[in-house]
Amino acid sequence: MREVFYRAYWIKGCTPLNVGLRLNVMVVYLCFPKVLLFYNSRKMVNASFAIPVSEFAELKIDTNYDSSNLEQKTKLRHIERHKSCGVSKAILSDGCGGQPCHRNQTLEEDAAWDALKKSIVYFRGKPIGTVAAIDKSQGELNYDQVFMRDFVPSALAFLMKGEPLIVKNFLVETARLQSREKTVDLFKLGQGVMPASFKVHHSDPTKKTEILLADFGEIAIGRVAPVDSGLWWIFLLNAYTSYTVDKSLADTPDCQNAMCLILKLWLSEGFDTSPALLCADGCSMIDRRMGIYGYPIEIQALFFMALRCALRLLKGSGNDFVSQILKRIKALRYHLHSYYWLDFQRLNDIYRYKTEEYSETALNKFNVIPESIPDWIFDFMPSRGGYFIGNVSPARMDFRWFCLGNFIAILSSLATGEQAEAILDLVEGRWEELIGQMPLKICYPAMENQEWQIVTGCDPKNTRWSYHNGGSWPVLLWLLVAVSVKLGRPHIGRNALELMEQRLAKDDFPEYYDGRAGRYVGKQARKFQTWSVAGYLVAKMLLDDPTKIGIVSLPEDGDIREPVLKRSNSFP
Ligand code: GLC
């Protein structure tokens, strides 16, 4: 640790801004040792990424395996749909009368399925995931890897199509990767960390041997451990279990163990005074510096979702986590409802806040100075509608709208029924800003000029209205469609989908679009970005068959579990 400090925090020739930032980070390191692993460790020693080969068993590739045969090899199962998915009755009168639509596949869908199939990655003859993008025209970087978060829409598309095998393989292999020892410089990361991505490596092409190489943040740009990966893993295990109506995978010791390791790490105690999870900038889908360090809604909503999914899946010794999870869910819900929810009325209250309040009865608990409220929010906030703001921490409210956090809040039922409706009201009311010509804005608004310089560190990829800084991401469509289906307002999702269909396939499924209205294919966007393809297909299938919403959505009151009877209860 001493070495890391000396190398990373020795201040020499720094600007005052740099010094301030470095000192801030140092204070966080000193005060929150338990969250150390979530923070950027500046890598000063040039250690190359090399996992000792001895850690892997090397197997011969099954040469009899015909990769084009996935559909034949995967047993199509007739699945009885869950009735508890909370699909509103209103959709019964919509589109196909509440029944799955049987219609011919469009050209766009054909192109999308084709692209999705091409993206499948095989490991020792088995399909185990999908690459991030297949764009031969661009330098590879790490887009040839299977990303945990990127695979989620692919997995949902495969499940909805009746092909659960690839999802099962992915869950099993990533649980294995989790058990590896991971270090950054001289520091060992928590055991529960799940990889951001992995790839199949042919260690010896002549012998046809394959191993998996994973990245836990130790080689990623910025060196951030992905806080979202473990949460997505639990979400996916629940989606798989809901769809197959088969708990046997979740019940295996490997899956139970993986879940417990994630929970142990994510629920570990620290110096926090709030139930929200403390994170480094760039530890989620937005994986570059964007001023979302601290307690970003993107992670808090996903955390809430994963905790609720875990409650459904834990068994045996995993039940030890149940009471801890129940308490955390309750506190997290209270915290996010009290301090993150913003509507016209609350904005007006904050605008009139008094400052420097001390004591438990303080109204302005985080000492937010009203002058720090940005101008744009007063115009953006409709009189009908509301949303969870981006982040709350001492003297800081990040009022930006973040798409993923708000939609996961609806799907996980973190948002009350009323709040969920209000979020969709906001999307409808601010259609031009949030949907524009290509759905959907990852966050709103974009940072410009000096704010962009300071907050992003002059990131040329995140210039205003591009990429993570107010860019438009087709992958997010599946979330909009899912929430609109859940709330019985599918026309909202359908309108967005129709907009997207005019261009997405013609533009070769770009990763993101640029511009205030999302009219331009992103400056550095990869083409044939797999989650743009999969997100579109999931959206399409959800609109065709709204009963599929149960795979990704949790009903409002699902946390009640029978008390776990321990031996001591029955034998005092
Ligand atoms: C970019 C995105 C990240 C994604 C990765 C692979 O880095 O910001 O969310 O997982 O590309 O597509």
From TrEMBL:
Record's keyword annotation contains Membrane: yes
EC numbers on record: 3.2.1.26
A Pfam family this chain is assigned to: Glyco_hydro_100
Recorded GO MF terms: endo-alpha-N-acetylgalactosaminidase activity; sucrose alpha-glucosidase activity
Segments traversing the membrane: 21-39
Catalytic reactions of this protein: Hydrolysis of terminal non-reducing beta-D-fructofuranoside residues in beta-D-fructofuranosides
Domain of life, source organism: Eukaryota
Enzyme class, broadest EC rank: hydrolase
UniProt keyword list: Carbohydrate metabolism, Glycosidase, Hydrolase, Membrane, Transmembrane, Transmembrane helix
GO process annotations (BP): sucrose catabolic process
Purpose of the protein: Invertase that cleaves sucrose into glucose and fructose.
Annotated family: Belongs to the glycosyl hydrolase 100 family.
PANTHER family: ALKALINE_NEUTRAL INVERTASE, PTHR31916
Protein name according to UniProt: Alkaline/neutral invertase
Organism: Lolium multiflorum (Italian ryegrass)
